[in-house]
Amino acid sequence: MKSFVLLVLTFTVPLPFAYAQNSQGLPPTDPLYKTVVGLDTELFDAYNNCQLDKLGSLVSEDLEFYHDKTGLAVGRQTFIQATKNNICGKVHRELVPGSLEIYPMEGFGAVEIGIHRFTHPDDPRNLGEAKFITLWQHKDGSWKMTRAISFDHHPANP
Length: 158
Hints:
Layout: H1 2-12, H2 14-21, H3 31-48, H4 52-57, E1 59-67, E2 71-74, H5 76-86, E3 92-95, E4 101-105, E5 109-120, E6 123-139, E7 142-155
Parallel strand pairs: 1-7
Antiparallel strand pairs: 1-2, 3-5, 4-5, 5-6, 6-7
């Protein structure tokens, strides 16, 4: 049993240190970084402007969207309908400058991590922020958001 514990510790202790050494992801000059930033911009331009067809073209049919306040939503149509009902004309999303981290996911695509800010057009003092993780898949020459997690929603300081 002691050997097993030592073995587990040997393989788990260095991981936090290794992660801390490379916690910024790809540099902004990396082509994959630029690709994902472009995807984020394209996705949220469609989101902010209620371009539902465009938004739908950027997410997978089996999208899983996890939200700390509303739970799990599954499927492209569910996501589009929720955006139409709850976001269009009511909420605007922007990326918090300097918060973005992008990591390659070998054989799949990329993971995007950051902080986004939400404003309400009718009440500019009503600001919120949340952390997010987006998994992008590159398949058959196109990119799709396959999984998204939006969490730690809280009021933001302007």
